[in-house]
Amino acid sequence: MLIVQKYGGTSVGTLERINLVAKRVAKRKDEGNAIVVVVSAMSGVTNKLIDYAEFFSKNPSSRELDMLLSAGERVTSSLLAIALQELGYKAVAFSGRQAGLKTDSFHTKAKIELIDPTSINEALNDDKIVVIAGFQGVDKNGDVTTLGRGGSDLSAVAIAGAIKADLCEIYTDVDGVYTTDPRIEPRARKLDKITYDEMLELASLGAKVLQNRSVELAKKLNINLVTRSSFNENDGTLITGEKKMEGAIISGIALDRNQARVTIRNVDDKPGVAAKIFKILSTQEINVDMIIQNIGTDGVANIGFTVPENELNQTLKALSNLDDSFSVESDSNIVKVSIVGIGMKSHSGIAALAFETLAKNGINIQMISTSEIRISIIVEAKYGELAVRILHEAYELYK
Ligand code: ADP
Ligand code: ASP
Ligand code: MG
Asked: Which sites bind substrate (predicted)?
């Protein structure tokens, strides 16, 4: 089999762990597989490098930031290749550029445009284990780009697609995808299988076990994706296109702490005003979510919406450039709790149970949005983890 394995930050967090990863990779190679490994930076390194940049500037240039951050993954890839060579295997380390990963020029959140797998395939033909630095590529000017936080998952899936791998394994520090973050709710249950659509919702709503764009791409390319632990041999979770088996209506609950709420008051209640506001945000690639507008009185209305907390400053700046008479308030002391399940499509009363459960526990709901397969609720940050636990209980997800 041709297998792409991706090891996350904790899995390669120390030199000893990199050595354990090397042994794991070697074992799969001995079983007769061809192996490409994608690695993250050692845990904490990416954040540390960001801190270093912020020592010099509150707003470091994104091109230079990408040069800096890409170094984290290069360190791990070279060390793992050296460890494999020491174990007696042929191994080669590649940066994103050497692996043929071409992106657009949106530094710090670049999109992959294409992968030229020639070098990877040549190395595989030479019977080498190919170790690739995740999270990075190169744009048409030859500048290094990075793919957004958690982006090594995306590198792995994209490479698996480009070389037509039989399997893409994402190794992390938990046994797979759980009904909710097991660090918040110890009674969370590991799922054997989850559909791409449900996983995509969970990932987009804060379950960082898989980066959302990687799930989107896996669905598009129909890649066999498995998440599992690098610390044991337990079976992981298969992410698949198969329709849901009978049973659970809800598959999981996600908590997104990286959220902020913006309220714009006294917006002229006439056509085109909302368009103008959201146009300026979208041209800056700000991810607006959960928009609500109340019914206007006296010719003015209020518009509320959420944005990722780390895009709040940019949002406020963009809005201040509009020469309107409205006033803008923001609150980053909020979180988004989301309930996800394709079974919701055909069941009623799911949302009512969430609202009742939160009310019984005195948790105030600030905003609600729903789709066919999810309900998202904004609550004050301090209630986020409690909300996850009581909803997990209410929907009996531990069963
Ligand atoms: P890596 O460094 O391997 O990429 P991440 O920290 O990005 O790992 O993702 C793994 C973490 O995701 C887990 O440690 C867990 O706390 C968190 N997580 C959040 N939601 C879930 C979930 N539903 N199932 C499993 N893990 C989850
Ligand atoms: N090192 C990067 C991050 O911390 C990418 C990754 O780990 O996937 O976001
Ligand atoms: Mg990750």
From this structure: 46, 73
Give the number of the ligand closest to the Cα of residue 254.
Answer: 1
Q: Which domains does the chain have, with CATH numbers?
A: 2-172 (3.40.1160.10), 261-330 (3.30.70.260), 334-395 (3.30.2130.10)
Report the nearest-CA residue for atom 4 of ligand 1: 8
Tens digit of each residue's pLDDT, the chain (399 residues): 999 999 999 999 999 999 999 999 999 999 999 999 999 999 999 999 999 999 999 889 999 999 999 999 999 999 999 999 999 999 999 999 999 999 999 999 999 999 999 999 999 999 999 999 999 999 999 999 999 999 999 999 999 999 999 999 999 999 999 999 999 999 999 999 999 999 999 999 999 999 999 999 999 999 999 999 999 999 999 999 876 555 678 999 999 999 999 999 988 888 888 898 999 999 888 989 999 888 778 888 899 999 999 899 999 999 988 867 789 999 999 999 999 998 888 888 889 999 999 999 999 999 999 988 999 999 999 999 999 999 999 999 998
What's the CA-to-centroid distance between 92 and ligand 2, angstroms? 21
Contact residues of ligand 1, CB 6 A cut-off? 8-11, 40, 150, 172-174, 177-178, 180-183, 202, 207-209, 252
Q: Is 383 annotated as a binding residue?
A: no
What is the distance between the alpha carbons of residues 141 and 58, in angstroms, rounded to a whole number?
A: 26
Which residue minimizes the CA distance to atom 12 of ligand 1? 209
> Which residue, by CA, sits nearest to atom 5 of ligand 2?
150
Q: And the tokens for 129?
A: 């284990």
Query: Ligand 2 atom 9: the closest Cα is on which residue?
Result: 149
